Amino acid sequence: RPQPEGESAAADPRAEPGLSDAESASRLANADELFDLIDNDCSGEVDKREFTTHLSKAGYSMVTIAQIFEILDVNIDGLISREEMRRGFLSYEYSALRLALGIKPGGHKI
Q1: pLDDT of residue 98
Q2: What are the 10-residue block averages of pLDDT along the chain, 110 residues in total?
Q3: Alpha-carbon distance 72 to 110, whole Å?
Q4: Are the C-beta atoms of residues 100 and 60 closer than 8 Å to each other?
Q5: What are phi and psi of 74, to 5 degrees?
Q6: DSSP code string of 70-92
Q7: pTM higher than 0.85, yes or no?
Q8: Which residues contact 110 (CB under 8 A, 6 or more apart)?
């Protein structure tokens, strides 16, 4: 979801310490773009099949895909919500997460 007017993404308690508002906004925008790309059926949630399809195209093993899915699926319901994806982009080592999800430096999809 877009940040409400006047609400700072950097103020999010889940965000990495020291993130600027611009960096947080950039990460959230990347998370939203990737979420929309992976959510093929436009259900508003990414299921394991959609996630596996996307990451396997980037060459990741089934074990690695399962591990990343487990990290992002915070509420353990078998689906990744937009908020869970955004939380992952704010909370985890960004460069590693971007590479794992198939985003090259500069924001281009693999």
Answers
A1: 67
A2: 40 59 89 93 97 90 91 96 93 67 54
A3: 20
A4: yes
A5: -60, -40
A6: HHH-TT-SSEEEHHHHHHHHHHS
A7: no
A8: 57, 58, 102, 103, 104
| 3-class SS of residue 109 | strand
DSSP states along 27-50: HHHHHHHHHHHH-TT-SSEEEHHH
CA-to-CA separations, 31 to 20, 41, 63, 97, 108, in angstroms, rounded: 16, 17, 22, 10, 13
DSSP output for 46-71 = EEHHHHHHHHHHTT--HHHHHHHHHH
Q: Record the tokens describing residue 91, joined without a space.
A: 């909370």
User: Would you say the C-alpha torsion 57, 62, 63, 66 has a positive or negative sign?
Assistant: positive
Q: Look at residue 99 in the predicted model and tell me its pLDDT.
A: 66
How far is residue 45's CA from residue 59's CA, in Å, rounded to a whole number? 23
In the numeric block, the tokens 């591990």 are attached to 67
Amino acid in the structure at residue 72 = L
Angle (nearest 5°) at CA 107 between 42 and 102:
65
Q: What is the pLDDT of residue 91?
A: 82
